[in-house]
TrEMBL record:
<keyword id="KW-0560">Oxidoreductase</keyword>
<dbReference type="InterPro" id="IPR023753">
    <property type="entry name" value="FAD/NAD-binding_dom"/>
</dbReference>
<keyword id="KW-0274">FAD</keyword>
<feature type="region of interest" description="Disordered">
    <location>
        <begin position="324"/>
        <end position="346"/>
    </location>
</feature>
<comment type="similarity">
    <text>Belongs to the class-I pyridine nucleotide-disulfide oxidoreductase family.</text>
</comment>
<dbReference type="GO" id="GO:0016491">
    <property type="term" value="F:oxidoreductase activity"/>
</dbReference>
<dbReference type="InterPro" id="IPR001100">
    <property type="entry name" value="Pyr_nuc-diS_OxRdtase"/>
</dbReference>
<feature type="domain" description="FAD/NAD(P)-binding">
    <location>
        <begin position="8"/>
        <end position="280"/>
    </location>
</feature>
<dbReference type="InterPro" id="IPR036188">
    <property type="entry name" value="FAD/NAD-bd_sf"/>
</dbReference>
<protein>
    <submittedName>
        <fullName>Dihydrolipoyl dehydrogenase family protein</fullName>
        <ecNumber>1.-.-.-</ecNumber>
    </submittedName>
</protein>
<dbReference type="Pfam" id="PF02852">
    <property type="entry name" value="Pyr_redox_dim"/>
</dbReference>
<feature type="domain" description="Pyridine nucleotide-disulphide oxidoreductase dimerisation">
    <location>
        <begin position="442"/>
        <end position="548"/>
    </location>
</feature>
<dbReference type="InterPro" id="IPR004099">
    <property type="entry name" value="Pyr_nucl-diS_OxRdtase_dimer"/>
</dbReference>
<keyword id="KW-0285">Flavoprotein</keyword>
<dbReference type="Pfam" id="PF07992">
    <property type="entry name" value="Pyr_redox_2"/>
</dbReference>
<dbReference type="InterPro" id="IPR016156">
    <property type="entry name" value="FAD/NAD-linked_Rdtase_dimer_sf"/>
</dbReference>
Length: 558
């Protein structure tokens, strides 16, 4: 039972991929949950990011017209109507609070002037585009991916700032439909975080489409010229454009949330630091770095982070040894919503009447983020335990409640699948079933043609972390499938940790690499011995056969 009429067991701040999933699963598990969303329930992925970009890329591959591509894109994004998503949450028993949510003190939430109370808080506020400080840029109309993926315009000349995943996908889309595209990338190559061969093959594919790549340059100044926009580059080049698309990275959304009132030292544009359970720590108290998250091994000179490791053979979800009786949390798991009706009459403190429930219940088209989209049945059992490590100090609740975070706001992995994974970790821990995230094998995919797939440790990361890698590669042109498909662009590289004798990373460029490389993600995550991997038989003729030779080579060298 709730402590009072305006009290929720859990408030989920931000209703994107992570928030939607966490809210639905916690409600399924019987918790009294409110989800606060300022824009569209579903967040970036179904409306402004993954789904529209993949739809446009597919239309480009099929050779459709721009008009057809835009119509198809708008259909799969449900014409930006989140009614169906809201209805699904209501059915799960989640109260959707529309507006900007802000924490005003321990256990207190303000949503546009209405006040609520809560025990646990899940921060899933996502990220926003980072706009570089370039003279004149703020004075001219620019696109971010939000506009590039929602408007019907096809600029004649498009300059894309940034050659990361967003910049490369968008450059390919607009070039395919006829825009004259220039990509300005500050570093010397595309996809700088990945193995160099990946960016090189992609650069070649984009150049063949007519994309002008200005690598190692950045804009120094932008201004309106007589016939459009003019950009002066750091390398002396000058570009004319009708539109500038900023794809220069994203910043975790941590400002204006009131997290400081919980004792959290929020830094603008910096991720909320979380531990392996996705529990938020005050800055400085967490020693986790991106490198150690991905590597799960200590960097030279760093103490081992045993929390992040999984003992051999142990499943990732384990019951915490201390977790069986720590809870004095005032939640009655038996009073959840049988079918979503219980939340419809909730009154906020500052609002006298009216419902705070989902607004738009009758949306037309289902945004097509695949699979359970946050509405799947919870994959964790209920429990009465609380997080054991001092959460009450942060929240000011003697005896219960924690601050958790999932998705882009954590700065970890920053993909939809990672957001969902972290949301599940949060759900388990809020329910008192200790679960730790393992980020060793989260795939990173750029859905261009050819596709770029990477997982685990990249050569760049290994160098930063001082890890000794042994690598072996194979060109897709060596497979029979490439001959059959008349498409021989691509390559696979596999990376093993020389000291541990294990496969720890991989990169592949090629048609549908995101599908046939999944087994490598499993091999990395499961720490499958190379001797076993070399015994796996692949169907003939497939691109998947390309991993066999490098696996044998690595096994022979280790
Ligand atoms: C162009 C582009 C393409 C991408 N393509 C892919 C892809 O193909 N595959 C992939 O895996 N990933 C892709 N990504 C990344 C993916 O979109 C994100 O990792 C994912 O959407 C993050 O989900 P999230 O729940 O953390 O945040 P979001 O989906 O951003 O949700 C956060 C939500 O919180 C709301 N919010 C924030 N603060 C408040 C507040 N105070 N009160 C109320 N509401 C608030 C926001 O309105 C938003 O709806 C892409 C990203 C971009 C930009
Ligand atoms: N398919 C996918 O999974 C997918 C697709 C798109 C985006 N995403 C996610 O979206 C996030 C954002 O992607 P992104 O590509 O915007 O960011 P990014 O940080 O990956 O890449 C940004 C690029 O912009 C460059 N840059 C920065 N400032 C610049 C400047 N002033 N001039 C020129 N270049 C500049 C950087 O060197 C970098 O290469 C990523 O975290 C990514 O994981 C995922």
């Amino acid at each position: 039972m709730s402590l009072s009429q305006n009290h929720f067991d859990v408030v989920v701040l931000g209703g994107g991929t992570a928030g939607e999933l966490a809210a639905a699963e916690l409600a399924h598990a019987g918790r009294d949950v409110a989800l606060v969303e300022n824009r569209l329930v579903g967040g970036e992925s179904p409306y402004f990011a993954c789904v529209p970009s993949k739809s446009l890329l597919l239309s480009a591959r099929r050779g459709e017209t721009w008009e057809l591509a835009v119509a198809r894109r708008d259909e799969v994004t449900g014409n930006l109507d989140d009614g169906r998503a809201v209805a699904r949450l209501a059915e799960a028993g989640v109260t959707v609070l529309r507006g900007w949510g802000r924490i005003t003190g321990p256990g207190v939430l303000d949503v546009d002037g209405a006040r609520y109370r809560f025990t646990d808080l899940v921060v899933s506020t996502g990220s926003e585009p980072a706009v570089p400080a370039v003279e004149g840029l703020a004075d001219v109309p620019v696109w971010t991916s939000d506009e590039a993926l929602t408007v019907p315009d096809l600029p004649r000349r498009l300059v894309v700032l940034g050659g990361g995943p967003v910049g490369c996908e968008m450059a390919q889309v607009y070039a395919a439909f006829g825009s004259a595209v220039t990509v300005v990338e500050a570093s010397g190559r595309l996809l700088t975080a990945e193995a160099p061969f990946a960016g090189e093959i992609l650069a070649d594919a984009l150049r063949r489409m007519g994309v002008d790549l200005r690598l190692g340059a950045e804009p120094a100044r932008v201004e309106r010229g007589p016939g459009g926009l003019r950009l002066w580059l750091s390398d002396g080049g000058v570009l004319e454009a009708d539109r500038v698309l900023v794809a220069a990275g994203r910043r975790p959304r941590v400002e204006g949330l009131g997290l400081e009132t919980l004792g959290l030292a929020v830094q603008p544009g910096r991720p909320l630091p979380v531990d392996a359970t996705c529990h938020v720590h005050p800055l400085g108290s967490s020693s986790f770095t991106t490198e150690t998250r991905v590597l799960n091994v200590p960097r030279p000179g760093e103490p081992a982070e045993t929390e992040m490791r999984l003992p051999n053979g142990m499943a990732p979800e384990t019951v915490h040894p201390n977790g069986t009786s720590a809870g004095t949390h005032a939640v009655d798991a038996g009073t959840g919503h049988p079918n979503g009706t219980a939340t419809a009459t909730r009154q906020p403190d500052a609002v006298g009447a009216g419902t705070q429930h989902a607004e738009a219940m009758d949306g037309a088209v289902e945004p097509s983020e695949p699979a359970d989209g946050g509405m799947g049945h919870p994959d964790v059992a209920d429990g009465g335990m609380r997080h054991p490590d001092g959460v009450e100090n942060v929240m000011g609740h003697p005896g219960g409640g924690g601050v958790w975070a999932a998705g882009d706001v954590t700065g970890v992995a920053r993909t939809t699948h990672a957001a969902r994974y972290q949301a599940r970790v949060v759900v388990a821990n809020v329910l008192g079933k200790h679960r730790e995230a393992d980020y060793r094998a989260i795939p990173r995919v750029v859905y261009t043609a050819p596709t770029v797939y990477a997982v685990g440790v990249s050569p760049v990361l290994a160098e930063q972390a001082g890890l000794r890698l042994i690598s072996a590669g194979f060109d897709l042109s060596g497979t029979a499938r490439a001959a059959v498909d008349a498409d021989d662009r691509g390559r696979v590289e596999l990376y093993a940790d020389a000291d541990r004798g294990l496969l720890v990373g991989a990169a592949a460029v090629g048609p549908y690499a995101e599908e046939w490389m999944s087994e490598i993600a499993l091999a990395i995550r499961a720490e499958t011995p190379l001797s076993l991997l070399t015994d796996v038989v692949h169907a003939f003729p497939t691109f998947g056969e390309a991993v066999e030779a490098p696996l044998r080579e690595l096994a022979g060298r280790l």
